[in-house]
Sequence to fold (452 residues):
Amino acid sequence: MGAPTLRSPLFHFIARHLALLLVLTSVAIPLAAQAPPASSTPQVVVVFNLRSNDLSLIDHKYRVFYNKFERKNLPIEGYDLRGAVQDEVMNTLATDKRYQWRVATDGDKLDPVQLANEKLRTAEMLSNAQADRVLVVDVAEFGAMISGLAQDRMWIAANVTMLDRASGRKLWKHGISEKIPFSGDLQKLQSENQKELKEGVNSLIEKACVKLKAKVAESKI
Amino acid sequence: MLAHLLLIALVVWPAALTDDGTLRIKTDVADVEVFLDGNSVGKAPLTLTPVAAGAHHLTLTKPGYVDHEEEVQVQDGATAKKFVIMKALPAEPPKLPAQFYAIHQHSAGTACSGILTVTAEAIDYRSHDGHDVFHIPIQQVQSLSRSMGAAWWTSGPLKTPSQYSACRLEVPGKSYGFFAYEEDPKLAGTPAENRVTKQDTSAKTKEMFELIYRLWAESLEQRQHPKQAAN
Fold:
C-alpha cells in the first residue's frame, strides 16, 4: 500500500470546475451543430409607400345646425418624412429575428405605389425581388384634427402587408393607426420651424412602430 | 450547486463590469453629421451601441443649418433617444415685390385672370379687366394651404384635375383660391384657360405658394416672438 497522495483543496476546486466545463462543452457543441444555419432564415425586402409628404389638416368648425369640415394640406417643411418612417420601421423590424429584413433597392424593381394597391398588384411585380417575402409599408395618411368641441389630435394610418415573393400571395395584412393628443394652435403648426408639428409626427411614428412590432410578432412566418 | 453559481458568476462578471447603454439620434432633416464627444460617428438617423454610461457631448452639423450642441445622459442598460429639429440659417431674402400671372377662383364657380403682386406686407391682385381687385395684408392671414382639386373648367389643357394644385388663403370671414401660371405672350388676349399649360401652372403655383408661405411664417414669428425676430 503506497503513501496517500496529498492534494491541496485548490487542486480539487480546479479539477471539479474543469470537469464541469468539459461536460458543458460536450453538451453545447452538438446543440450548436443542430442550430439552423443563418441562411434558412426567411429574407424579407421592405418597400415603403408614402402617399403624401403633406399633413392633412381637418378643421372642424361647429355650427348650430350642422358641422363644417375643411380639409387642408399643410407642408412639413424640411422634414425627411420618408427617411424617418423608414429608419424607425427598420429598427423595429430588426428586433424580430425570425426574418432577415432589408430595405428594397433599385435591383429589386419594386413599385411601391402599385404594390400598395391590391387591385393593381400582381405576382409578376415581385419577380425581381431578391428575397423570400416582400413587406409593403403603405403610409396612407398623417393627419391632424382641430376642433372646437373635441380634443385636438394627430394621427397616422398605415397598412402593412406581407407577400410571398414566389406566388405573390398575401400572407397577412394589418392596419395600423395611432393617435396622440395635440395642441391645435394652427399658427404654431406653421411657425417656429414647425417644431411642435415635427415632434408630434416623430411621436406618432414611434408609437405606430410599437404597434407594428406587436402585430408582426403575432403573425405567422 | 456552488460550482454552478461560480461558473455563472465567471461568465457574467465581465459583462457586469462595463456600464453601457444605447444612444438613438434622429433629426428632422436628412444628412446631418453626428459627433459624439468630438468624434464623427456617422449621419442621423443612427443608433449607437454600446455607449459608455454617463454624460456625452453631442454635436449635429449640416451645411446651411445652425450647429446643434447638447449634453446627453446615457444610462446603463437603457436607450437614450434624441429627436433634434435643426434650425436653418437665414436664407437669402426673396426679391420683392414679386409678380405672378394668376387665376383667381370665385366661390360661385367662375374665375378671372390677372396680376398678383406679393410684397413683404401684402398680397395685391388686379384682374386684367380691372373688375376684381383685392388687397390682403399678410398679418391678417389666418391660414395658408395648398390643395389639389378640380379646375373650374372641364375642357382645355387642365382637363385632368389631379394634376393641378392651387393655393388657398384664409383671412377673417373670407377665403381666396388662386394659382399662378406662365403667360405665353403669343396667346395674350385669348381666354385665360387657353393660356395656361399644366406643367407651368404647377411650377409657378409652387413658387408663389412658397414665397407667400415664407413671408407669412416670418410675420407669425415676429408676432409671437417680437424681441427674437428683431435680433
